[in-house]
Amino acid sequence: MTKRVAIIGAGASGLTAIKSCLDEGLEPVCFEKGNEIGGLWNFHDDAQEGASVFHSTIINTSKEIMCYSDFPAPKEYPNFMHNTWVVKYFKLYANHFGLQKYIHFNIAVDSVKPSSDYDTTGKWNLTYTDTEKKVTKTETFDAVLVCSGHHADPHNPKFPGQDEFKGRIVHTHDYKVPKSYEDKRILVIGIGNSGGDAAVELARVGSQVFLSTRRGSWVLNRVSDNGYPIDIVGLRRVIQALPLSLANIVVAKKLNNRFNHANYGLQPDYPPFAQHPMVNDLLPNEILSGRVKIKANVKRFMANSVEFEDGDRKSVV
Fold first, then answer.
1. Helix residue ranges, H only, the chain
2. Which of 68, 154, 202, 267 has the greatest number of beta carbons closer than 10 A?
3. Three-state SS for 105?
C-alpha cells in the first residue's frame, strides 16, 4: 500500500516536498491555509491573513542560485526577482510537475500528534479545519513534513518602558507599504534584511529614520564585479577553495572597499562568514544622505523618545 505523507504549507519548501514524495512513489497530501501557492511570497496587505513579504520585496539571491535544481528559472525572468516574479516561478514549477492537484487550499492545520499505535506504525494523526466550510477533520498519515517556514510568526522583543511609549510599534511581519509613515520620525530596531529593507524604504517618506543595531552587519550589494550577481561571483571555485580564515579576510577587504563599514557605523564584531549578512543596495546611500542614521542598541523607551545604550536620546513620535 502506498504511504501517505502530509505536507503542511505550499510555499517554496512545500512544493518541492510534494515533488520529492512523488519521485519516491509516495502519496502527498498538502495542506495550505491560504488560497494560493507561494507562501509568504504572496503579498497581501492584511497582516491578519498571515506572513507575507513587503509590497516592494525583491529576492536576495539571484534566480540562478535560488531556483530548483531540476527547474531553472526562465531566461527572460530578471536575475533578482520581485516577489511577483517569484510567485510566477513557483506556479510554473507546480504546473510543470503537476503538483496543484495534491494541494488542499484554505486548510488550517490545528494539531499533529502521534497515533495511538505510533510505537509500532510510526503514524501521525493530523487535525485540520477547512476555513471556508468551517469543518474540522482528523486523518492519519504515515509521515508529516512541516513546510510552514520560520517566518510565519513574529518574534517581538520587549524593552523597558515600552508600555509607556505613545508612538506606534509595528513588527516588520505586519509592515507592508510606507503609506501612513509620511513625515514621521521612525526607529527601526534590528539590522537583518527586513530591518534594512524597511529602513531604506521608509527613508524616502519619513522625516528621519534611525536604524538601531547591537552588533552591526556586513552589507552586500546584489551587483558585484562587472555587473554580475554577487552570489554567482561569490560561489566561484577559487573562493570556495580558500581556507575559511583567509576567505573572511578577502571578503571583508572587498566589502570595505565598496564602503568602509566602520565609517558608516556598521562594522560588525565578527567576520563575514560567521553570520548571515545583510543584502541591501541602498543603505550606504541613505546613510550618506543622512536620511538613515545608525544608532546603538535600545536601552529603554520613554513616552515620546528612545534612549540608546550609548546614552543618546532621540524623539521618535
1. 12-23, 63-66, 83-96, 118-121, 193-203, 230-234, 237-240, 244-258, 283-288
2. 202
3. strand
| pLDDT tens digits, one per residue of 271-310 | 999 999 999 999 999 999 999 999 999 999 999 999 999 9
Taken as a whole, the chain contains a residue count of 317
| 64 pLDDT more than 90 | yes
Q: What is the mean pLDDT of residues 45-64?
A: 86
Q: How far is CA 40 from the centre of its chain?
A: 8
185-189 and 208-212 beta bridge pairing: parallel
Q: Sign of the C-alpha dihedral, residues 51, 44, 19, 73?
A: negative
- What are the beta bridge partners of residue 308? 298
**105 Cβ neighbours under 8 A, 6+ residues apart:** 10, 32, 34, 35, 36
Q: Residue 145 forms beta bridges with which residues? A: 7
The DSSP bridge pattern shows strands 305-308 and 298-301 to be antiparallel
| Neighbour order of strands in the sheet with 185-189 | 185-189, 208-212, 292-295
